[in-house]
Known about the structure:
- It contains nine helices and nine strands.
- By secondary structure, the protein is an alpha/beta fold.
Amino acid sequence: MKAIVISIGGSVLFSEDIDISFFNQLIVLLKKSSKKNKIFIVVGGGKTARTYIKLGRELNFNEKTLDEIGIKITRINAEILARILKISNKDIPFTTKEAKDIDKPIVVMGGTTPGHSTDMVGAELAEKTHADKYIIATNVDGIYDKDPNKYSDAKKLIKVSIKKLIEKYGANWSSAGKNIVIDGPALEIIQRAKIPTFVVNGKKLDQLEKVITNQKFNGSTIKL
Ligand code: UTP
């Protein structure tokens, strides 16, 4: 059974208003998908992580500490998803190696070490599990030429080359809590390991299902 790795932004799972029906529908989709593929999910920190990181930064905590705070929040978010999934691991692994070796239809994890975001954890896991594809489920409809939350004329890039993304964003980690679509260290792994990578709005479960099932979807495909 081929693996699919899905990185789900914390902001997708945990929005301002608690949306139980979204959780229920997501769970139905993930369970259905796990019948054909082994599913690995990496959960992000979302607004809670950013709030704590902002507080820590104002208190002059160093970058490593800020990353560690972010990691802890991603692990709490992962635990919440794991608890409601039932057919997944309950204890959240600390490394991608540990996650790879868990014998469950769905494996859930959060962040691992400082210096990158959960995007990179997902890419690392996709490389280790020789995944069929890596899906980044974020809170916008794909990769844009500029931030669509700030610029109304931002254009979505339906296909974008990994080389162009690295030229634009670099392959380095910038700083804790920085909300960019894909972080540099993740881009580097995607390029090196040639991982088929897709970016989709995780709130739109019909679109997420289309990516999982290899149908035409509304989002971005990274050309390798
Ligand atoms: P996220 O992966 O959620 O970052 O991790 P993000 O891209 O800011 O947020 P989403 O995608 O909208 O959810 C939150 C923070 O935790 C630290 C980083 O500081 C990151 O910004 N982190 C996370 C790590 O240092 N290492 C990890 O493996 C994961």
